[in-house]
Design goal:
Layout: H1 5-12, H2 17-23, H3 28-33, H4 37-46, H5 61-77, E1 88-94, E2 100-103, E3 107-112, E4 115-120, E5 125-131, E6 138-145, E7 153-161, E8 169-178, E9 181-182, E10 186-191, E11 215-219, E12 225-228, E13 233-236, H6 245-248, E14 257-262, E15 267-275, E16 280-289, E17 299-301, E18 303-310, E19 313-325, E20 332-341, E21 349-358, E22 368-369, E23 371-380, E24 384-389, E25 394-402, E26 410-419, E27 426-429, E28 433-437, E29 444-447, E30 452-459, E31 464-471
Parallel strand pairs: 13-17, 18-22
Antiparallel strand pairs: 1-31, 2-3, 3-4, 4-5, 6-7, 7-8, 8-9, 8-10, 11-12, 12-13, 14-15, 15-16, 16-18, 19-20, 20-21, 21-23, 24-25, 25-26, 26-27, 26-28, 29-30, 30-31
Helix pairs in contact: 1-4, 4-5
Amino acid sequence: MSLPADVIYHIFSFLSPCEIVRFRQVSKKSRDLTHSHALWKEVYANARFSRPPGPFSWQSTRYLERTLVQSELVSKTWTSQPPKMLSRTLTNWKGRDYTWTVVLGRWCIFLEGNKIQCHDIDSDTYHSLYDGTTYPNFRFTAHMASTADINGHRVCLLLYHTNDQQSELRRLLAFRVNDNGFSEPEIIGWTHNGSQELDAWQSADGDGFRGSTPFITVRRYHPCLILDVRTRRSYRLPISEMIPNELANQSLADTWYNNVILTKTHVISVSMYTSGPSFDATVLIQAFVVPDSAIPHDVGELRLTHEVILYTYLHSSGLLRNSIVDPVTGSVNIRLLHVTAITPIAEESQLMCLSLALPKPVSNTDVLPISIRSQHLFGSSWEFEHYTVSDDGYVRGLLLTEKGPPYLGFSSVRKFTIDASREECAIAVSDPCPLDLPIQSEDIVLDGIRGRIHYIQDDHDVNVNEVVTIDLA
């Protein structure tokens, strides 16, 4: 007696993507079964390695299968073999503008004159996304926000003008991106009335999706500014009363680090303040939610719900696992990947998992303490880290070591993976491997799903820029 299709699909969901593809060779019936969209949606949802958010209804069977197979093949050798320069692709454009980004590891977006151009790395084709001739002298910052509707991921390009006459003008281009490419842009007029400059080069999502959220960060330094792309309203993060006045009133130069982490349920702010000749460090972690009522305003404040202070020196902080809501207590658990050191001059850095427990507020005025459980993952020396994270806690990344004095490039790399989906995180780190890259960290974009890096290569002899795409696994 033949089994029902849903039972067969459930059985197949325990196989790896590559095993399902191999099973396809058994018979015509097995081939038909393994091309089922329902099957690949279930396999995608249960996969135990890095992948983009999904499965969504717009993601085709071919997209789900190809993405999972590529990521599984990378996972088999990511930490066990040194990086191999397996293939090299170039994105070329004329001019001296360095404004560029890579979307979902496939589309390189760059500014050429007054036009925003797009290079499809997979098909090696070019097309124009936006003609800005009417608004000359602009640049853009790329932001990405995951969405679960039928139209694909939302990608936002925030345009800002560099001439004095239009210095306050900001225009937002909102695209939907699916497996077929970019939709026509929705052009959103948006004026920033404050005197503070926005982050011209800051992207909320430089190394891959960092959570499913409708927000983008348009300024990450104090005062932090968040834009809700659904309502087109801006929110700032208020100063905490937990920070002493002598620290809260410091200049920007004394606030060594500030980062905004966007999650499904909260906006997390991580700030570090220093004081004294020994640079004693105070790290403030805050959680905010957006007010339920849509009160008209130019710039409002997010509502602070939870906060905690740590005393440690901080290098960086990012999302490790997105929000999980306890159905019984209503508390929220969020995991951060925390990079710390004992002192500012410590030669060894520490990768830490911080599990933030946010109890359910009982009123709209409560500010509750955050409970933190930390787990040490890895300690060594490196200067920069790049990683791609899935909402459910699967991470694939690189630890890069500089060569000689700063800004001369990198001499070695370690590849690592983290599984933060369970109670205790598990990490695997490769041995240091030679990697001669004469570039700076901010010029690198990692596609952890495919095991690729993208970086800009400037040829000073000709008026041409190149983004180089290299497969490392």
